[in-house]
Amino acid sequence: MTESDATSASLPVPFFGIPSSGTGRQRLEKLRQSFSGAHIHALLVTHLPHVRYLTGFSGSNGVCLVTNRTCYFLSDGRYREQVRQEVERARVVIAKGTLFSEISSRKLLKGIERVGVESHYLSVASLETLKKLFPRVKFVSTRSLIENIASVKDELEIGYIKKAVAITDRVFSKILNILKAGVSEQDIAAEISYLHKKFGAEADAFEPIVASGTRGALPHARPSAKKIRNGELVTLDFGCRYNGYHSDLTRTIAVGKPSAKARTMYQVVLDAQQRALDAVASSMKAQALDTVARSFIRKKGFGKYFTHSLGHGLGLEIHEVPRISALSKDILCEGNVITIEPGIYIPHFGGVRIEDDVVIRYSSCEILNKSPKELIVV
Fold first, then answer.
1. Number of domains in the chain
2. What distance in Å separates the CA atoms of residue 66 and residue 80, rounded to the nearest whole number?
3. Phi and psi of 134, rounded to 5°?
4. What is the per-residue pLDDT across 224-234, written as a single tens digit (0 to 9) for each?
5. Which portions of the chain are predicted below pLDDT 70?
6. Which of 89, 104, 73, 84 is nearest to 24 (CA)?
7. Are 137 and 181 in a shared domain?
8. Structure confidence at residue 22 (pLDDT)
């Protein structure tokens, strides 16, 4: 999925999608080590994927308060049993009222002067509530404290992503059997969602993108009632979630004989992606990786039609750091899982995008997807 400017079969399948025990303690310790640089004494974690990353909780209402000594997890009575099954490495508090008021009534911030809040995820209204409940506490806007830790995946996390990728690859192979002229984009999208769950996914990673013909020029086209016609390119962008971790695949297929222009576009995108795959390595600037693909597409005369970033991080969220874009300041490192997905989108004609999920290793990358990338004509 674009972003603006079978080896895992034996994996354990717990209720939570994160490694347990020792690895979790390491995450908390790394987080605490960032407190001094952020000038805080504790961090209030409200973004649910981050709560899950730290504790294992997969429900819809929960917060963490991480201090220098303790990690508190708060939720409500609906999740009492789920918390017993999932939450690790935290002192559990089942709130009688709101989660913030419970922090106040239990005096969990007693003696703490500066508390970090996740500025990208906390609403203004919530921040005002916190200020009223804790008038003596200074709430400090923080950014990327957890994201930077979570961007480096351990092998168990990579295993969950591999499982998600394998499910999505399997769905792609089945979709090829029903992709033909006369079938609507919505029918294809519905089949993708059904097959993901049938093959063991928790859910789609995002609403599947199915864009045929001229609609292929829309990078994030929502599936429509339009029926696929002979001679059109069809871009399929979809993924699933397994144990909390995501996959993200894009392939562009020709239904019937494609035009010479369509074949040229396809080959340029395929070659651009391969150049990026060959270039990626630990310690590389994300911006430089974007340039590898973008400069090739520009050289071939399609530069103005590549309108989004080359890729993004992948994990408990479909879009994570590092950002692989012309504006990115991120540095790639071993253990990052990213997408590489160049595209060309020509208004009133159509589009091509090809995407793989890869793990960055020391001097190269491991491509997780097995779906073929040579132009398929059905």
1. 2
2. 20
3. -130, 70
4. 999 999 999 99
5. 5-22
6. 89
7. no
8. 55
Report the CATH number that the domain containing residue 67 is assigned in CATH: 3.40.350.10
Asked whether residue 275 is domain-assigned, the answer is yes
Any alpha helices (H) in 235-368, and if so which ranges?
260-279, 286-299
The span from the CA of 237 to the CA of 235, in Å, is: 7
DSSP β-bridge partners for residue 45: 64
Q: Residue 46 belongs to what domain range?
A: 22-150
Torsion-angle region of residue 256: left (phi > 0), alpha (psi -120 to 50) or beta? left
Last residue of one domain, picked from the residues 119, 150, 181: 150
Pair (45, 172) in one structural domain: no
Q: What is the pLDDT of residue 15?
A: 36
Pairwise CA distance, residues 214 & 346, whole Å = 8
**Residue 82 burial by CB count (10 A; 0-12/13-18/19+): exposed, middle or buried?**
middle
Query: Which residue type is seen at 329?
Result: K
Q: Same domain for 165 and 311?
A: yes
Polymer length in residues for the chain: 378
In single-letter form, the type of residue at position 304 comes to: K
Pair (50, 179) in one structural domain = no
Do both 73 and 164 map to the same domain? no
Task: Identify whether residues 182 and 291 lie together within a single domain.
Answer: yes
Q: What is the pLDDT of residue 3?
A: 80
pTM, rounded to two decimals: 0.92
127 and 177 housed in the same domain:
no
pLDDT at 207: 98
Q: Which residue has the tokens 């819809």?
A: 60
Cα separation of 246 and 320, whole Å? 11
Give dist(CA 195, CA 255) in Å, integer: 21
